[in-house]
Amino acid sequence: MATVKKTTTKKTTQKKEINRQDVITAYMEYVLEHEKTPKSVFKFAKDNNMTEADFYGFFGSFEGLRKEIWNTFFTMTMDVAHKSEDYHSFSNREKMLTFFYTFFELLTLNRSYVLFALQENQHMMSKMEQLKGLRKHVKGFAKELIQDRNENKTNILLERSETIYSEGAWVQMLFLLKFWMDDDSAGFEKTDMAIEKSVNTIFDVFDNTPLDAVFDFGKFLWKERMA
Question: Distance between CA 100 and CA 180 in Å, rounded?
Fold first, then answer.
């Protein structure tokens, strides 16, 4: 009687291909679990089952990675905003409100990391370095809004400065970021109020009707500071 020889097939394990988001996620989880930044790319890569080549394929340094995290926050915010069927019919004021509401909702989902990233180093220049890419994106977004507004104005005297407006939008972002970091209200509802009042104030200023809006916003800030 013939016998059948049992054969075994050797299983091969294939290494998972590392992508950009994998590296970002691993870094964010690392700093939250260890409450400090990694000492070296070599050790970080080894601890996360990747190679240095995997890391450097996407980022030149941890500083570059930190900048990209903020860029990703902006990109994801804009992606969410544009998925709304009504977004393209929004006024510039509504687009700015949508941007800030969505951006801070996203930050809230990653609040532990954001607080660590901005509080780890008390030196202001170090904090601002990681926000350089975000600053460029926010100013670019604001510039597009003011360009759209200016195109609809037939009188050149009614046009607004793209440079001033875009820089104002960035200053507004920094103010709201600090406000959100200090906000201890349920659901960060005070941040939502600050977003609404600050955006309305800026647009009212650019529409030459600032007094009531600025006064109302000033009372809001005073109340929050003194509470």
Answer: 11
